[in-house]
Write a structure and sequence with these properties.
This is 37S ribosomal protein Mrp4p, mitochondrial. This protein is an alpha/beta fold. 54% of the residues lie in helices and 7% in strands. Among the domains are: 83 residues, no CATH class; 224 residues, Glucose-6-phosphate isomerase like protein, domain 1 (Rossmann fold).
C-alpha cells in the first residue's frame, strides 16, 4: 500500500516536470496554424476579388456588345428606309475615301472584324441578310467539285468585298420578307406578282369602249338627236305592265305582248319624245316656267328631278304633291314670306322693282313634267282645271287622254325615268341658252345705239 502511493507521487512529479516543455511546443504549433489560416484567407479574398473583377469585365463586355448590336440594328433599319440610288452614291463616296487611306492592312483587318461580328454576333434572320452582299447561301455538297472550283476559291469569292462600306442592301425591295415554299404568298409578294403580271401581260386583251354608266343619265344627259330606239330599249322603256292592268286606251302605243306583259312600241315613244322636247324648248326659249314632278320614294328619281330642274332653271317637287298647290295656292303657301317673291327680266336678272298689285298675282307654271302620273292624279286634275299643259310618261296602266303630251314609256324603271328627265331637261336648257343669247345681243345693240346717240 505504501509503495503504490509512492509510485503515484513520483509519477505526478514527472508529469509536472514535463509540462513546461509541452506548453512551449503547443504555443509554437498554434502560431504556425494561425499564419496558415491568414494566408489561406488572403488567398480566398484574392480569388474572390479576381472572380468579381472577371465577372464585372464580362458584364461590361456584354453590355458593350449589346449596345453595339442595338446600334447595328438601328443602322440596318436606317439603310432599309434609304432609297437604293442614295445608298449607291454614298457607297461610291465611302469607297473613294477608303481607297485614299495609307494603311490598307488596317482597313482589311477592320473589314474582317466587322464581317465576323455581323455574321457571328448579330445572328440576323435569313430574311434580313439574304440581300446583303456579305451573305453567302450554303451550297450543297459536291457542288464545288462539279463546277470545278476549290474551297479556297469559294473563300476568295466570299471575301471579295473590298471594304465594309459595301455591306448594305442592293435589292430594289429591301423591305420584302420572302416566305418559305410551304407557306402561302404574303401580301407584299402578291402585290409584286401583280405588278409583274401587269408589266408583262397587262396590255393584252380587248379594250371596253362605250360602257354604260348610270350616273351619266343624270349628270351628262344626252340630247334628243343622240337618243335612239336602242338606247330606249337598253333603259327598259319598252316594258309595260301585265295584261290584267292594261287600259284599252293605250292600244295605239303597244307593240305586242310577251309572257303576259305588254311591250311598248318604241317608235311611238321616239315620236312623242321629239314632240315633247320641241314644246319644252319653245317654252324655255320664251321665258316660261317649267315644273318637274317626280314623287317616287327612290332616291335616284329624286336626284334626276332635282338635276333636271337646275339644268333648265325650273322648279321641282320630289317628295309629295300637296293637294291644292295650284288651285288653292294662297292657302297652301301662307307660310311663305312675301320677301321671297321678286320680279325678273327675260335674262333671269332681278329688276329690283317693287311688286304692285297688278304684278303681284299668282304665277302658275307654263308646263308641268310628270314622271309618275299614276301616283299624281291630284296634280293632273289641278293642271286640267287651271288649263296648264302637262307632259308625262304614260305606262300601259295610265289613261293617256289625261295628259296633254303623253310619252309611252315605262314609269317604274329608275333608269328609264332618269333618261327621260335628262332628255327633256336638255331640250329646255337649249331653249334657255338661246333666250339668254338673244337677250345679251339685244342688250349690246341697245347699249351701242345709246352710245351713238350720246356721241351725236
Amino acid at each position: 500500500m505504501l509503495s503504490l502511493t509512492k509510485t503515484r507521487v513520483l509519477g505526478a512529479r514527472s508529469v509536472r516536470r514535463s509540462l513546461p516543455g509541452f506548453s512551449r511546443s503547443y504555443a509554437s504549433t498554434t502560431g504556425a496554424t494561425e499564419q496558415e489560416q491568414a494566408s489561406q484567407r488572403d488567398l480566398r479574398e484574392k480569388s474572390v476579388a479576381d472572380a468579381l473583377a472577371k465577372e464585372e469585365e464580362a458584364l461590361a463586355k456584354t453590355k458593350q456588345l449589346r449596345q453595339l448590336k442595338e446600334q447595328a440594328h438601328a443602322m440596318i433599319s436606317t439603310l432599309n428606309k434609304t432609297p437604293t440610288t442614295l445608298v449607291h452614291e454614298r457607297l461610291e463616296k465611302l469607297q473613294r475615301e477608303v481607297d485614299s487611306l495609307a494603311n490598307q492592312d488596317k482597313v482589311k483587318q477592320l473589314d474582317e472584324e466587322l464581317e465576323d461580328f455581323m455574321l457571328k454576333q448579330m445572328q440576323l434572320p435569313y430574311s434580313e441578310i439574304v440581300n446583303h452582299p456579305w451573305s453567302v447561301a450554303p451550297k450543297p455538297r459536291g457542288a464545288s467539285s462539279a463546277s470545278g472550283t476549290s474551297a479556297s476559291e469559294e473563300e476568295g469569292g466570299r471575301t471579295q468585298i473590298k471594304s465594309t462600306s459595301t455591306n448594305t442592301y442592293t435589292s430594289d425591295f429591301p423591305q420584302l420578307k420572302p416566305t418559305p415554299d410551304f407557306k402561302p404568298y404574303s401580301e407584299q409578294e402578291l402585290y409584286l406578282r401583280q405588278l409583274a403580271h401587269t408589266r408583262r401581260s397587262g396590255t393584252l386583251g380587248s379594250d371596253l369602249t362605250n360602257v354604260y354608266k348610270a350616273r351619266n343619265e343624270v349628270n351628262r344627259p344626252r340630247q334628243i338627236e343622240d337618243t335612239t330606239v336602242a338606247s330606249l330599249m337598253a333603259a327598259g322603256c319598252h316594258l309595260g305592265h301585265s295584261k290584267a292592268m292594261w287600259r284599252p286606251s293605250t292600244q295605239p302605243f303597244l307593240y305586242g305582248e310577251y309572257d303576259g306583259i305588254h311591250l311598248i312600241d318604241l317608235n311611238e315613244t321616239m315620236s312623242a319624245l321629239k314632240r315633247a322636247t320641241q314644246v319644252l324648248r319653245g317654252i324655255a326659249g320664251n321665258g316660261g316656267v317649267i315644273l318637274y314632278v317626280g314623287t317616287n320614294k327612290n332616291w335616284e328619281q329624286k336626284r334626276a328631278v332635282e338635276e333636271a330642274a337646275k339644268r333648265s332653271r325650273g322648279y321641282y317637287v320630289h317628295k309629295r304633291w300637296i293637294p291644292g298647290t295650284i288651285t288653292n295656292f294662297t292657302e297652301v303657301t301662307k307660310q311663305v314670306n312675301s320677301n321671297s317673291r321678286m320680279e325678273i327680266d327675260m335674262g333671269d336678272v332681278a329688276t329690283k322693282r317693287e311688286l304692285t298689285e297688278e304684278n303681284d298675282r299668282i304665277i302658275k307654271p307654263d308646263v308641268v313634267v310628270i314622271l309618275n302620273p299614276v301616283e299624281n292624279r291630284n296634280c293632273i286634275t289641278e293642271c286640267i282645271k287651271s288649263r296648264i299643259p302637262t307632259i308625262g310618261l304614260c305606262d300601259t296602266d295610265m289613261e293617256p287622254s289625261l295628259l296633254t303630251y303623253p310619252i309611252p314609256c315605262n314609269d317604274d324603271s329608275m333608269r328609264a325615268t332618269s333618261l327621260m328627265a335628262g332628255v327633256l331637261s336638255k331640250a329646255a336648257e337649249e331653249g334657255l341658252k338661246r333666250r339668254l343669247e338673244v337677250v345679251a345681243n339685244s342688250k349690246n345693240v341697245r347699249e351701242g345705239n345709246f352710245s351713238r346717240r350720246a356721241q351725236a
